[in-house]
Amino acid sequence: MDKKLKKGKSQELESEVYKKHTKVYPREVHGLFARLRVTGVVTLLGIYYLIPWFTWGDRQAVLFDLPARKFYIFDWVFWPQDFIYLALLLAIAAFALFFFTAIAGRLWCGYACPQTVWTEAFLWIERKVEGSRQQQIKRDKAPWTSDKIKVKATKHSLWVLFSLITGFVFVGYFTPIRELAAGIVTFQLGVWEWFWLFFYGFATYGNAGWMREQVCMYMCPYARFQSAMFDKDTLVVAYDKERGEPRGGRKRTIDPAEKGLGSCVDCNLCVQVCPTGIDIRNGLQYECIGCAACIDVCNDVMDKMGYEPNLVRYTTEHRDDGHETHILRPRIVVYAVLLLVITGSIFFKIATRIPLELDVIRDRNALYRETPEGLVANIYTLKVINMDEERHSYRLRVDGLEGLTHALDGKVLEVKSGEVLDVTEDVVVDPINLKKTSSEIIFTLESIENPELVSEQKSRFLGPLIR
Amino acid sequence: MEKKKPHKAIAILWPSFMVAVVATGIFFSTFDPVEIYHISGDGFELSGLGHYTIGFFSFWLLGAVNGFLALYFLKPCE
Ligand code: SF4
Ligand code: SF4
User: I want to staple A289 with a disulfide (CB 3.0 to 4.6 A). Which of A109, A460, B45, B70 is the partner?
Assistant: First the structure.
């Protein structure tokens, strides 16, 4: 019995979460927030499509060169060793998101999320080809005619073309984009480049053309946990129930107070413009991505009716209940402090970064070797990476064991900017100086031009078993 | 547990995708695929993005297998 009840409940939940999807036809909307979003969309897409075409010196300004294992971002060159910066950057992005979400709700979703941005672009194409919301609904209901096929084919061709361009630019972040363009024209692209071009293009087409609001509802991790960052002082889009109800249709000329009506004329436009297909008048819903399309359209209606605007508006729960909204609250302060600390530490790390890396790898083939003179020798492979913008000469010191000698003693290692030098090092010690079978030795590499450029690496020196 | 097939697929493929992105980042910032190739001495020599692509999809596959098994074991046994 108990089990049955539980099952019923979970089924209910599931059918709620995974209710049958009906296509949402968002109506076009104009107004302040729509303009803001278009600005956001154009700016972000502009950045995405144009950035790979910029050059910086003699290279692409932003290039994630995987085969060479170097990330170029304008003046900066990041190596795999700099992974920590990437991790810190991600942490900054996460805390910035928490911070803005706590203050202003789902700003990210409504204006900056790639899902919104590309969906918006796809919707624009759809409207250009298929016409307004009414025309789209009518056409979808109508039987297939040659005209319908033509319209649909045009739309999908444009979508596919746009997606392929998007995929091409994506690959252009990893392979020099000019070579890539030339490779496409001459059909001489590497198989992996083709693969990613189509893969990313397909993902764009699927997500922005077909999945749309379902991505926000079923796939987006942020949508799932953003409510944890909400409190009563967070900016949300909400309908003013007090003022709007009782809703009802009426003529422009009548006085609503006389008829006992609120300000909502029940035109349903706010539902029609909603990209996630919800009714904001039902209160706060997790599907709402805070895009403010309903604010824009309702203000239009209010204007036409000659009523005050902002029946649907940005507000906070506190303000709605007649309390004051507090911007500064513990949660905000904590996010802000964390954000500052992480941002500070990344700048500190970049400022004090030593652009020199030394890797020491013990020879794998032999533990140690005895020389004809009865000394013990270990072989190491050293990797010197000069991450500086200039060429440097380095000297190597090896310490840790008494009386050791090494092959690179007094030699100068020259490494060009951005190059990796592989050298073999032979360290030799008299066995009477070996107290243990495995002793620690320290390799220190120092630039001759700039003694501040120092890198130290520990390794082990192995000798015969000592009883 | 009877969810519709596409939703199950999303529930398996999507989280494993995100984990694969992170795993690929960590793995390849530690190991250079060309070096792995030299050490192991055999396998294919792949060009450019090849190693990274295969690495990413292997991680994705592993994560998806894990997700599939998790869902499978959640099913009550008859
Ligand atoms: S757009 Fe405004 S007036 Fe029209 S139904 Fe929505 S809330 Fe009411
Ligand atoms: S309810 Fe309004 S703000 Fe929320 S998603 Fe729909 S249109 Fe956008």
Answer: A109
